[in-house]
Amino acid sequence: MVRCPYCNFEGNFKELRNPWKFRFYTVKRLECPRCNGIFNHYYGVSSRGKNSEFVIRVKVPIKK
Q1: Which range of residues forms the domain containing residue 22?
Q2: Residue 4 falls within a domain, yes or no?
Q3: In terms of CB atoms within 10 Å, which of 9, 27, 32, 52 comes out highest?
Q4: How far is residue 23 from each of residues 14, 17, 32, 43, measured CA to CA in Å?
């Protein structure tokens, strides 16, 4: 289950764009419904058969 890196919310996230491929990963850009934090969720299986999954915060411009 994916967890928000900002507020640790675990649940349904809003997808902000279509998933894309990066090496062996599939990447989804997600937005947290609780804190509105935006992050990328990477997941996939390496060429050696190892499952890998992690999230990276996305720096977004401050809205004024």
Answers
A1: 14-57
A2: no
A3: 32
A4: 24, 18, 25, 11
Q: Is residue 50 part of a domain?
A: yes
Q: How many domains does the chain have?
A: 1
Determine the Cα–Cα distance for residues 27 and 55; give it in Å rounded to an integer: 9
Which pLDDT tens digit goes with each residue over 29-39?
999 999 999 99
Cα 36 to chain centroid, rounded: 13
Q: Tokens representing 56? A: 């990276």
Q: Is 49 left (phi over 0), alpha (psi -120 to 50) or beta?
A: left
pTM of the model: 0.86
The amino acid occupying position 50 is: K
In a domain, 20, yes or no: yes
Instruction: Say if 46 falls within a structural domain.
Output: yes
